[in-house]
Design a protein that fits this description.
The complex is a heterodimer of chains A (about 160) and B (about 120). Chain A is α+β, with helices and mostly antiparallel strands. Chain A has a single domain, classed as Jelly Rolls (Sandwich), CATH 2.60.120. Helices cover about 30% and strands about 20% of the residues of chain A. Chain A contains five helices and eight strands; from the N terminus they run H-H-E-E-E-E-E-E-H-E-E-H-H. In chain A, the strands form two sheets. Chain A has a four-stranded antiparallel β-sheet. A four-stranded antiparallel β-sheet of chain A has the order 2-7-4-5, with no helix packed on it. In chain A, a hairpin with a 4-residue loop joins strand 4 and strand 5. Chain B is an alpha+beta fold and about 120 residues long. Chain B has one domain: Jelly Rolls (Sandwich), CATH 2.60.120.10. Chain B is about 35% helix and about 30% strand. Chain B contains three helices and eight strands; from the N terminus they run E-E-E-E-E-E-H-E-E-H-H. In chain B, strand 4 and strand 5 form a beta hairpin. The chains are: A alpha+beta (about 160), B alpha+beta (about 120).
Chain lengths: ~160, ~120
């Protein structure tokens, strides 16, 4: 069996929670939200991740250490956004460790391709899970312009793999 | 398409420069756009019809990471950040969630590729 390239303790991607602010009830996508993010000097991915954390429309899942979150090649039933903890991703040729803010399986699920990554919880991991059945049912109702932008984003994600 | 405005750019026009504050995103309808490094001027991507650009900075309220120049005469659909917020606020929670989460997945994918 071929040894996979491993990054050991290196973390390939993680949204820093060091500056996790208290938004005092300010809603995302408002001018006040943006000016608050500006004043805090938040990065682009921090702004998006914190806005996603405010969503109450997704289910929270807890995975115990070494639990399988998904397997490469399997159909995507749920996409996961890592909220807390670390996940090891493997695609058969490489292994990387990712933390909060990592998104697994979303682009693949929308275009009905199988999971690119096998994902295993390194320690205790909390994710927010998006049901692909629900998403694909609602997808045709999304704003046409947003879907156009999303299709382009999906191509960039899947082409980059 | 509601919220979007049709705009045209002559060949050679700079749409935005790296470091500019982000106000608009674009969907290219016809023509070619060059994306270049703000410091070296190196063109690292050429966009064609159907491609979108500028959306990450608008979504996250940040600044441009690249310079966009019309390589040919171009026709684009343009949406400003207020227009994007108006569309997102009228969309379902699922639509909002997916739009943002896909951009986060792209951030992750780019970081994973850099780590290889």
């Amino acid at each position: 069996m071929t040894e996979l390239a491993s990054t050991d303790e290196d973390i390939a991607y993680e949204v820093s929670m060091a500056q996790l602010p208290d938004f005092h009830g300010i809603q995302p996508d408002t001018l006040l939200w943006n000016t608050t993010c500006d004043s805090l000097g938040l990065t682009s991915d921090q702004r998006i991740f914190y806005a996603l954390c405010k969503s109450t429309h997704i289910d929270s899942h807890v995975f115990h250490p070494n639990a399988s979150i998904c397997r490469a090649g399997e159909d995507v039933h749920q996409a996961h956004i890592v909220v807390d903890g670390y996940v090891e991703l493997s695609d058969g040729t490489r292994k990387v460790k990712v933390g909060a803010g990592a998104v697994i399986g979303l682009a693949e699920g929308i275009i009905e391709q199988p999971h690119t990554w096998s994902a295993i919880a390194v320690g205790l991991v909390t994710t927010n899970a998006i049901s692909m059945t629900k998403l694909l049912r609602e997808w045709p109702l999304f704003h046409k312009g947003l879907r156009g932008i999303e299709r382009c984003t999906i191509s960039r994600i899947t082409d980059a793999k | 398409m509601s919220g979007f405005k049709e705009v045209s750019f002559s060949s050679g026009t700079t749409l935005f420069k790296a470091g500019d504050s982000a106000t608009n995103l674009y969907i290219l309808q016809s023509g070619t756009i060059d994306l270049s490094d703000g410091t070296s001027g190196h063109v690292f991507a050429q966009l064609g019809p159907g491609d979108t650009f500028g959306e990450q900075a608008v979504l996250a309220g940040g600044v441009r990471s690249a310079t966009a120049t019309a390589a040919t005469d171009c026709l684009c659909l343009e949406l400003n950040s207020s227009g994007l917020n108006a569309i997102l606020s009228a969309e379902s929670p699922m639509s909002n969630l997916v739009f943002k989460a896909l951009h986060l997945q792209l951030f992750m994918q780019n970081a994973v590729n850099r780590a290889r």
